Amino acid sequence: MTIHEIVSLVKGKILCGNVGEEDFVEYCFASDLMSDVLTVRRSDFMLITGLSNVQSIRTAEMSDLKYVMLVRGKTPPQTMIELAEESGIVLIMSPYSMFKASGILYMAGLKGVF
Amino acid sequence: MDLSFNIQGGDFTSAGTASSQVRRTLKELGVDASVIKRVVVALYEAEVNIVAHACHGTITAQINPERVFLQLVDEGPGIPDIEKAMTPGFSTASQEVREMGFGAGMGLPNICRNADVFNIHSVPGKGTTVEITIQIK
To answer: What contacts B85, CB < 8 A, 6 or more positions away?
Structure first.
């Protein structure tokens, strides 16, 4: 699924990063616990999180992820956006809860990492 | 190549900058992406542990074509029962640490899982030393 399709499904917006038609993901992992994210061996998934601080971006960086979706309509601090830009990470924001955003994306075909 | 960093306890804004620097260096050296991920995940967990639990710490990363050796030495409360601390889910983290997305009791098990060789030595009331070796070849 392309990132543009994902953003449209969750009524979201892209806060930083350049996104084209070649940007797509097949897998997602949703968590507010960064150590849980760091246990995932693969790197081809989008992180869905409600954790609105720089550590969610640091975790994405260490996990070699390119896409992070921030849910629950949280406005991220400027430091988080700046770090995402610096790290080449696309940061998406959705007004939906983690459950609702995950459910919509799962029903639309995105897969869990396990 | 040797890299070293000073880590300040409680500084969550900077937590991860050392790991990020090591990641950049390994990428520049052309190290395999799966190896880089193992190194930086282990290092990041250990770096966050220093920030979360210690007063101060140092990280040394020795990189050669065969392996990466990481040594993290902190001055802090130490770990009275290492076996217990290695149990997945066991945590003594503060609420502040949990609000940063950590403190779920997966740090040390996660470090161990990614390391080829993992050593931990702690003196209660003084501090903890963690050594991680990951083979590149």
So the answer is: B79, B92, B108
**Nearest CB to A33; choose among B33, B48, B104:** B104
Q: What would the pLDDT profile of A45-56 be if each residue is shown by its tens digit?
A: 999 999 999 999
Residues of chain A contacting B104 with CB distance shorter than 8 Å: 33, 35-36
DSSP A74: P
Note whether ipTM > 0.85 here.
Answer: yes
Q: Hey, CA dihedral for B86, B36, A92, A30, is it positive or negative?
A: negative
pLDDT, mean over chain B: 94
CA geometry: angle at B111 spanning B110 and B114, to 5°? 85
B104:A35 CB<8 A: yes
Give the tens place of pLDDT for each residue, B82-98. 999 999 889 888 888 89
Structural domains of chain B, ranges and CATH numbers in brackets: 2-135 (3.30.565.10)
d(CA B125, CA B55): 11
Show residues of chain A in contact with B12, CB under 8 Å. 53-55
Residues A9 and A104: their CA atoms lie apart, in Å, by: 7
Which candidate, B10, B9, B7, places its Cα nearest to that of B20?
A: B7
pLDDT of B137 over the 90 cut: no
Going from N- to C-terminal start, the domains of chain A cover 3-112
What's the CATH fold of domain A3-112? 3.40.1390
Tokens of A77: 């601090």
